[in-house]
Amino acid sequence: MSDLGPVLSASLARGAYGSARALQGGPAAAEPIGKAGGETFAEMVGKAATDAIQTTRQAEATVQAGLAGKVDTQSVVEATMSLESTVKVGVAVRNKLVEAYQQIMQMPI
């Protein structure tokens, strides 16, 4: 799935590249590893999770309002589509994290 724009950012890529260069002793070794792009990986993942939970709650509220007849059908469909794309991105990210964890566990010590 290539729709990971909100999850991945250029600052994350720069931070990862800087960390790799620091491990090799390259020119980026003097840069701080934790805050290379202004936001740590943990902060970025936490923000993405918070956004996903917020989208889920908004979609559920819209669907409930639609069932009660307070919201038009178009709004319910839009909320459902938003929820579906959020779930797809979340599952794709989870699958990549599990795959990376499994690869790390297979590495010889």
UniProtKB/TrEMBL annotation:
Signal peptide interval: none
GO molecular function annotations of the record: cytoskeletal motor activity; structural molecule activity
Biological process according to GO: bacterial-type flagellum-dependent cell motility
Main location: other
Similarity-based family: Belongs to the FliE family.
Protein name: Flagellar hook-basal body complex protein FliE
Cell compartments where the protein resides: Bacterial flagellum basal body
Family matches, as PANTHER family: FLAGELLAR HOOK-BASAL BODY COMPLEX PROTEIN FLIE (PTHR34653:SF1), PTHR34653
Protein origin, superkingdom: Bacteria
Keywords in alphabetical order: Bacterial flagellum, Cell projection, Cilium, Flagellum
Cellular component per GO, a single term: bacterial-type flagellum basal body
Pfam families according to UniProt: FliE (PF02049)
